[in-house]
Amino acid sequence: MKRSLMLNAIDPAIGGVLIRGDRGTAKSSAVRALARLLPDYDAVEGCPYRCDPVVPSRYCDECGLRAKERTLPVVRLPMRIIDLPINASEDRLVGSIDIEAAVRAGTRRFQPGVLAEANRNLLYVDEVNLLDDHLVDVLLDAAAMGVNVVEREGMSVVHPSHFILVGTMNPEEGELRPQLLDRFGLCVEVVTLTDIDERLRVMELERDFLQSPQAVHKVSAEREGELRDLLQAATDRLPRVSLPDAIRTLVARLCLDGSVAGHRADLVVARTARAICALRGGPVVEQVDLVDI
Ligand SMILES: [Zn+2]
């Protein structure tokens, strides 16, 4: 679970992760803890969608216009986790256009929604299997096109919508629609611990925390600092990690043997293997990185 989250932080193109498991196995806690490890990124200052200054093809309309006049100011921002509550309204998800203001003052006023906040961030849906069908469709559309289109009464707003999708669910409460399942790059199963010593460790951690929260925070902060450095180093290394033809062939062979429909799996497996290689500090993907998946 932790590794799958880290791999997505290293390469968001992996396509997110679905975490399945029993209630009370710290699935949400692990996702929220990732927020403290996520790398910073460059964004256009003042842009509500935090456009990437070096990717003009993904600029929002406003950044596109501003870029014609002058060099866009850049600001460094931390990657964030944006929650999508399963009972959110469609307006909350996609944003809303203030029609009244448009009619009254002739101005286009757009209230950004969760998809705007999630652009270039991580979009987290707890109990994703219980998400309303209509919201699922909107989410899939935005994820597929990389843009969010809002249309109301003949007015429309379009803005970039690229996000890492992370979902958690308890399969006992219902399965996920196949179309949505297909959108997650990785899927991990979390099981309840069956080892007595490991279960004791959980209780001891809670006892330690209740006795001295500061001491536990101090130890965690040190460990988090190490992990953040590790992630940053892996993120920096990733563009230089090479994937030999022999490994690529092996990926295709594995997916073929697994009777996988389509080719998305080949791409995700190859990407994940590269991220694993970057995380262990290697320059070239080896068989061990594939086996690790
Ligand atoms: Zn922008």
The radius of gyration is: 21 Å
Mean pLDDT reading: 92
Task: Assign the CATH architecture of the domain at 1-39 and 79-192.
Answer: 3-Layer(aba) Sandwich
Q: Spans of 5+ residues with little confidence (pLDDT < 50)?
A: none
Name the ligand types: zinc ion
CATH first level of the domain at 1-39 and 79-192: Alpha Beta
Structural class: alpha/beta
The CATH topology of the domain at 1-39 and 79-192: Rossmann fold
Detailed description of the structure:
- The chain is an alpha/beta fold and 293 residues long.
- It has a domain at 1-39 and 79-192: Rossmann fold (3-Layer(aba) Sandwich).
- Helices cover 46% and strands 17% of the residues.
- The chain has helices spanning 2-10, 27-34, 61-69, 90-94, 99-105, 114-118, 133-145, 178-181, 196-211, 213-237, 245-257, 264-280, 287-291, and strands at residues 17-21, 40-44, 74-78, 81-83, 96-97, 110-111, 122-126, 147-152, 155-160, 164-169, 186-190.
- The protein has a five-stranded parallel beta sheet. It has a two-stranded antiparallel sheet with strand order 2-3. Strands 5-6 form a two-stranded antiparallel sheet.
- Helix 9 (196-211) packs across helix 10 (213-237) and helix 11 packs across helix 12.
- It is globular.
- The termini are close together.
- It binds zinc ion (ZN).
- The site of zinc ion (ZN) has 8 residues, from helix 3.
What's the SSE blueprint?
Layout (H helix, E strand, L loop, with lengths): L1 H9 L6 E5 L5 H8 L5 E5 L16 H9 L4 E5 L2 E3 L6 H5 L1 E2 L1 H7 L4 E2 L2 H5 L3 E5 L6 H13 L1 E6 L2 E6 L3 E6 L8 H4 L4 E5 L5 H16 L1 H25 L7 H13 L6 H17 L6 H5 L2
Parallel strand pairs: 1-10, 1-11, 4-7, 7-10
Antiparallel strand pairs: 2-3, 5-6, 8-9
Helix pairs in contact: 9-10, 10-12, 11-12
The protein binds zinc ion.
